[in-house]
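Input record, target 12 of the design panel.
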């Protein structure tokens, strides 16, 4: 085979690998960010429990996360067609943040005034973890699906990786909170940021899905206008 014929063949091979590799690295970065956020939420929820219950509730939370991520992955196409889903997930996660903030404040008050506080129950912790998993699993699946839609094996790898990372980090964070209570407020700020980001992205998705971009841009200040590039990206991920 001549050099002139070899170069196009090599270019085709390289082009065939470029898309999967790009999707792989996009999914990897998404998982590193979102799994860390999810781990913080789980660690915060489990932090008020005794050590034996802490490990147990994190394990149950991982089981719920696995089930939800697999379930959402199977119906990704349908989920991407639902208007306002990301917005609803963000609002739900914001409610979890409010519950966590109340707990952190109550614990701080009890420690400052030497007040005996009723211990957090396993049920309360698991409910918070379940709702946080529901919101963040939704965010994770939608983000990974957008990056790896044409590469299902990469999408499956990404979802499994996010669960492993979340489990390892959540246990470490929950143990750390027992020694340094102030870290809970730092973690809470991270989860609040995730919730607000979901709400921000979600409300803009609703505007684009309802074809109300001209009216939105007319009412909104110029810096937050929905741009043609944002619309193009949204349409691509639908």
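The sequence produced for target 12 reads:
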């Amino acid at each position: 085979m001549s050099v002139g014929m070899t170069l196009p063949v090599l270019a085709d091979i390289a082009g065939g690998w470029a898309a999967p590799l790009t999707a792989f690295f996009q999914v990897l970065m998404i998982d590193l960010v979102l799994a860390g956020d999810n781990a913080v939420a789980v660690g915060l929820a489990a932090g008020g429990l005794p050590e034996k219950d802490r490990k147990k509730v994190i394990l149950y939370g991982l089981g719920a996360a696995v089930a939800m991520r697999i379930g959402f992955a199977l119906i990704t196409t349908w989920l991407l067609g639902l208007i306002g889903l990301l917005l609803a997930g963000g609002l739900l996660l914001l409610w979890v943040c409010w519950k966590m903030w109340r707990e952190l404040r109550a614990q701080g008050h009890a420690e400052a005034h030497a007040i005996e506080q009723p211990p957090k129950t396993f049920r309360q912790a698991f409910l918070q973890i379940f709702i946080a998993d529901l919101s963040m699993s939704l965010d994770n699946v939608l983000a990974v699906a957008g990056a790896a839609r044409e590469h299902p094996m990469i999408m499956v790898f990404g979802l499994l990786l996010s669960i492993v990372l979340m489990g390892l980090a959540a246990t470490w964070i929950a143990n750390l909170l027992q020694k340094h209570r102030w870290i809970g407020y730092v973690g809470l700020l991270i989860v609040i940021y995730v919730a607000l980001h979901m709400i921000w992205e979600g409300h803009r998705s609703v505007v684009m899905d309802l074809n109300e971009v001209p009216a939105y841009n007319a009412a909104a200040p110029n810096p937050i206008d929905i741009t043609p590039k944002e619309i193009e990206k949204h349409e691509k991920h639908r």
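Confidence is low (pLDDT under 50) at residues 1-15.
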